[in-house]
UniProtKB/TrEMBL annotation:
SUPFAM superfamilies: HAD-like
UniProt cross-references to InterPro entries, sorted A to Z: ATPase_P-typ_cyto_dom_N, HAD-like_sf, HAD_sf, P_typ_ATPase
Entry's EC annotation: 7.2.2.8
The protein, known as: P-type Cu(+) transporter
Pfam family, one: Hydrolase
Signal peptide coordinates: none
A GO term for molecular function: ATP binding
Keywords: ATP-binding, Copper, Copper transport, Ion transport, Membrane, Metal-binding, Nucleotide-binding, Translocase, Transmembrane, Transmembrane helix, Transport
One cellular component term from this protein's GO annotations in UniProt: endomembrane system
Length: 312
């Protein structure tokens, strides 16, 4: 409005600030160079968002909010759900750069989004999680798609993945111990003490090993997603209401500088060799063009000599 030479009164400015503190985006409307209305727009926070954020924090994960909204609205939303770190007024390219920065710091990044502007960051993250009710672009760019519009499914997917990895490790250790004990017996190492394994026993033991691992993996079919009541009981009194003073807000990407890559000695030698070869090639091309132009120059001199003789 100021850019269009419209004065915003202090009371209107205070009303806008108050709406932004409550998590709304204030929009001014002017008709014929006169301020006539103010519209407050708010994205309703999902009822399960606070529980999902606190559960992720209790799992040892760091939760960061990245949004293109203004800093005041982002701070208010983060305080409602318990997020402590916010990047506000960011562009889609800023989201990608922030994900890349976290990855360069050695962190495994999971990105949750549902919009078109989230799709580049979803593709860049180690694990991209898209909401099933979001845009098609975000769904195509993500690695995991949540069918329902429920943020608790993010907690369930992470919990299920941890249980799957734990089951894989248990199966691996069990199979390793099983083979370390069974192979020496089948090879006859303990034959002097009378411990011998018949061929049919070895076949049965090998089949039992495979069946036991498969049955152990099939136990994951009994997995049930933790409900909101279970998560509430698990958190107990550890949840505390967030305040605006606890939230740190960064505008854009802040003072993020991309470090220049350090080249090893071998890389420097290769780059210098390539530059030398390219310069030699360019010199050769210029020499070839000079040689090809010599006949034209010779013919031009001959024509000049003939003209001089005719003139004389």
């Amino acid at each position: 409005m100021k850019r269009n030479c419209l004065q915003v009164r202090p009371d209107i400015d205070e009303a806008m600030i108050e709406h932004e503190r409550r998590g709304r985006t204030a929009v001014l409307v002017a008709v014929d160079n006169t301020l006539c209305a103010m519209i407050a727009i708010a994205d309703t926070v999902k009822p399960e968002a606070e529980l999902a954020v606190h559960t992720l924090l209790s799992m040892g994960l760091e939760v960061v909010l990245m949004t293109g909204d203004n800093s005041k609205t982002a701070r208010a939303i983060a305080a409602q759900v318990g997020i402590r770190k916010v990047f506000a007024e960011v562009l889609p390219s800023h989201k990608v750069a922030k994900v890349e920065q976290l990855q360069q710091a050695g962190k495994i990044v999971a990105m949750v989004g549902d919009g078109v502007n989230d799709s580049p960051a979803l593709a860049m993250a180690d694990v991209g999680i898209a909401i099933g009710t979001g845009t098609d672009v975000a769904i195509e760019a993500a690695d995991v798609v949540l069918i329902r519009n429920d943020l608790l499914d993010v907690v369930g997917s992470i919990d299920l993945s941890k249980k799957t990895v734990r089951r894989i490790r248990i199966n691996f250790v069990f199979a390793l111990i099983y083979n370390l004990v069974g192979i020496p017996i089948a090879a006859g190492v303990f034959l002097p003490i009378g411990l011998v394994l018949q061929p049919w026993m070895g076949s049965a033991a090998m089949a039992l090993s495979s069946v036991s691992v498969v049955l152990s993996s099939l136990l994951l079919k009994c997995y049930t997603k933790p409900t909101a009541e279970k998560l509430e009981a698990r958190l107990g009194n550890s949840r505390r209401p967030g305040s605006l003073s606890d939230v740190s807000v960064h505008i854009g990407m802040g003072e993020m500088r991309r470090p220049s890559p350090r080249l090893s000695l071998l890389d420097r030698i290769v780059n210098y060799s390539r530059a030398s070869i390219n310069s030699l090639r360019s010199d050769k091309h210029s020499l070839n063009s000079l040689v090809l132009s010599e006949p034209d120059k010779h013919s031009l001199l001959v024509e000049e000599a003939r003209c001089e003789e005719e003139f004389c």
